[in-house]
């Protein structure tokens, strides 16, 4: 089978690349990768990436806004987990539209426009579907309209890794888009039946992550992003939509519904944590224990709004220590610090309370032990894992990409005519 040429953006320590290579190192060939930690002299994640995948002139360590000009053409698959920001756009004087400066979506958008990757796989926090606060769904609407303008079909799904047999309750949105000429799933019309078929049965996410087949045409919502909105700026100003956890865009029609995962038994923390002796520095001192027990306790705090109004901020009680007979909670970049969200476990050997070790955080994301043990301070090892993703999910998606790519390629060959698809796949 022909290699799939991959470009990895916002590469961090290489979660996408590792997942795809776990699917097939022969097929997925990363031709270019970019990682740059803003405002940091030491580029720990980039160094870790090079340590694990080897130094290469095709690994770029510059702001993507600058580095994008070096990117090769002919990209089969563009991947990346990008920061979630406010994506609003404004009309320029020339009546064109322009994204807010410094918002990374517009870098991705530029790359899509210029390089026309055949497939795109993106990851973000699931909050993306709901943002902004005042225009619910607007930011995702902008992304979809932008992809529509560039000729893509799109599918998305919010996936909680623990619901698919994995070791972390990490809920993230994944977006898979592909050039509509490739039409992986042979969709003829943008209608409810085809949307239902994609979401529930035969589409990219349905193939990768089974759901309970209970969706009916009655619980799918639809909106046409072109019919009702003149352009991106119009979407930016006026779009509001209640996106559900799964959906697709066929031509300019967006369909969305709530999918229930066909849950597999997750892996629990007890299967991950070290049962060997752990260094003393990971164990809590009495003061740390007291601070953390307070941080994780229930609270109701009186606060004052800028206008002087009083309100109460409340937080529920968290399990302290964390249960090890369930998967890890979502790891954040603050993991391993005195923070409410850090995992604290009872060490299986000593029965004393301790933080997770960096190796354990790597296992929670499905990275090999010591992946980030690459000369970076320990604090950054936790930070990088908080930023990364559950690699096993990307492996599953990589398997599906191979399957649909192969099918399309063989189909094009069997047809024995140089169709657009064949030309696209062959080039
Ligand atoms: C959500 S993380 C992605 C982590 C990655 N998927 C992994 O497995 O480690 C986003 C990454 O984008 C990088 N980044 C942020 N701004 C950037 C920019 N302007 N140019 C290039 N990379 C940037 C951050 O340093 C961070 O590593």
UniProtKB/TrEMBL annotation:
Q: State the similarity comment.
A: Belongs to the class I-like SAM-binding methyltransferase superfamily. C5-methyltransferase family.
Which InterPro entries does the protein's record reference? C5-MTase, C5_DNA_meth_AS, C5_MeTfrase, C5_meth_CS, SAM-dependent_MTases_sf
Cited Gene3D superfamilies: 3.90.120.30, Vaccinia Virus protein VP39 (3.40.50.150)
Q: Does the keyword Transmembrane helix apply?
A: no
Protein name per Swiss-Prot or TrEMBL: Cytosine-specific methyltransferase
Instruction: Provide the E.C. number(s) assigned to this enzyme.
Output: 2.1.1.37
Q: Which reaction does it catalyse?
A: a 2'-deoxycytidine in DNA + S-adenosyl-L-methionine = a 5-methyl-2'-deoxycytidine in DNA + S-adenosyl-L-homocysteine + H(+)
Gene Ontology MF annotations: DNA (cytosine-5-)-methyltransferase activity
Cited SUPFAM superfamilies: S-adenosyl-L-methionine-dependent methyltransferases
Enzyme class of the recorded protein, top EC level = transferase
Q: GO terms for biological process?
A: DNA restriction-modification system; methylation
Instruction: List the gene name.
Output: dcm
Keywords, comma-separated and alphabetical? Methyltransferase, Restriction system, S-adenosyl-L-methionine, Transferase
Residues forming the catalytic site: 84
